[in-house]
């Protein structure tokens, strides 16, 4: 299995979680910190579901970026945009992991499970990015 495929599958778990939360109109994420009832006060009717659908959409976008990285690029522009998108996704997952794990360790809010999920996600994204670079460089030889 290609590492990008593993990243796509791992991201699919996030998307599935977000779809469930959207259908149930719940805030949060599977394995994440508990959301207090006060967390819902800033949302109007239907906005919680909309926010979760947007999160699911961001996951689908990450899956598309990983899929795009599986293609061979002839143009420098296409390769660089895809590479930058890969690194951006990796950075966001790494920051999410650090924030969730740090918050779980330093406070009592919880979220260690999702933090660990994000850490694995960041590693998979990073490996897919490194693989994209390696494959691109080997084409030129």
Automatic annotation (TrEMBL):
This is Uncharacterized protein. The keyword Membrane applies. It comes from Nonomuraea solani. The chain crosses the membrane at residues 53-71, 83-106, 112-132. Keywords: Membrane, Transmembrane, Transmembrane helix.
